[in-house]
Amino acid sequence: MKYPSGCLLCGEPLVYQSHAVEQICVYCGSTYLSEVNCAAGHYVCDTCHRAEPSDLFESYCLQSTSRNPVAMAINLMSHPSVAMHGPEHHFLVPAVLLASYNQVKPGGNLPIQLRQARHRAEGVMGGSCGFCGNCGAAVGTGIFISLITGSSPLSTQTWQLCNRMTAESLLSIAEHGGPRCCKRDTFLALQCADAFLQKEFGVKLEMPESIHCDFSPLNKQCLQKGCPFYSGLQVSKIVTN
Predict the structure, then answer these.
(1) Can you tell me the distance from the alpha carbon of 132 to that of 144, in angstroms, rounded to the nearest whole number?
(2) What residue spans define the domains of the chain?
(3) Phi-psi region of 232 (alpha: psi -120 to 50; beta: other; left: phi over 0)
(4) Band of the pLDDT at 80, cuts 50, 70, 90?
(5) Residue 209 CB coordination number (10 Å)
(6) HEC states along the chain?
(7) pLDDT tens digits for range 174-220
(8) Long-range Cβ pairs for the range 170-177 (8 Å, 24+)
């Protein structure tokens, strides 16, 4: 959510101290000397205040220790640089999946994987859900499977897995109907990816028992009670990391 004042992450008032202390940015993980944080203790550095979404996603995912892609996605979508709808979500999905997967199954080259995911996701145009019948959030799950399996157009079994992953995400997104909502489609894609990982790889991420979306006040086309994530509430506190 875009908080008009206070903390970018939770909306709590900013607290100004009499002297600078070392603080860790909740988005990039870097340490700074600053006199300012919020009443809940969050600190966001100036660079992340100005960050472009894709840069923000990379830096956040590189420092995160979370195994929960949904919590990570909510934190990132709460940043004011991330629009309610937009192609940045096409990279967001594989980014948080790669980061959480690498916490559960260490050993992957996360910096390289994130850079590759970003490059591939940038090829998925905005509005592809309605213009091409191919939601970018679903494509993001296919990108994720491709990267963790090292798949290519000449692969066999992994080629099949990538396409099945995207297809299952697309089907779930389609079954919930339109118009598009990048938040709803992101949540659905992440749920599908977690179920697919369990079935095909025996890997389970840390997923919440239920997802409550508080972004609906920003979405004029929100399905409200027609959406499985609709909370009907105003912005709630976001769990960090």
Answers:
(1) 20
(2) 1-50, 52-226
(3) left
(4) confident
(5) 4
(6) CCCCCCCCCCCCCEEEEEEEEEEECCCCCCEEEEEEEECCCCCCCHHHHCCCHHHHHHHHHHHCCCCCHHHHHHHHHCCCCCCCCCCHHHHHHHHHHHHHHHHHCCCCCHHHHHHHHHHHHCCCCCCHHHHCCCCHHHHHHHHHHHHHHCCCCCCCHHHHHHHHHHHHHHHHHHHCCCCCCHHHHHHHHHHHHHHHHHHHHCCCCCCCCCCCECCHHHCCCCCHHHCCCECCCCCCCCCCC
(7) 999 999 999 999 999 999 999 999 999 999 999 999 999 989 888 88
(8) 170/134, 170/135, 170/138, 173/129, 173/135, 173/137, 173/138, 176/223, 176/227, 176/228, 177/223, 177/226
> Which of the residue ranges 43-57, 70-84, 223-237 would you say has the lowest mean pLDDT?
223-237
**What does the alpha-carbon distance between residue 219 and residue 207 come to, in Å, rounded to a whole number?**
24
Please answer whether residues 208 and 70 qualify as being in contact, where contact means their C-beta atoms are separated by less than 8 angstroms: yes
Beta bridge partner(s), residue 33 = 22
Give pLDDT, residue 143. 98
Name the one residue in this structure whose structure tokens are 């199954």: 105
Give the span between the Cα atoms of 26 and 18, in whole angstroms. Answer: 22
Question: Is pLDDT of 236 > 50?
Answer: no
Kindly indicate the confidence band of residue 166, based on its pLDDT and cuts at 50, 70 and 90: very high
Residue with tokens 């979404």: 53
| Predicted confidence (pLDDT) at residue 4 exceeds the cutoff of 70 | no
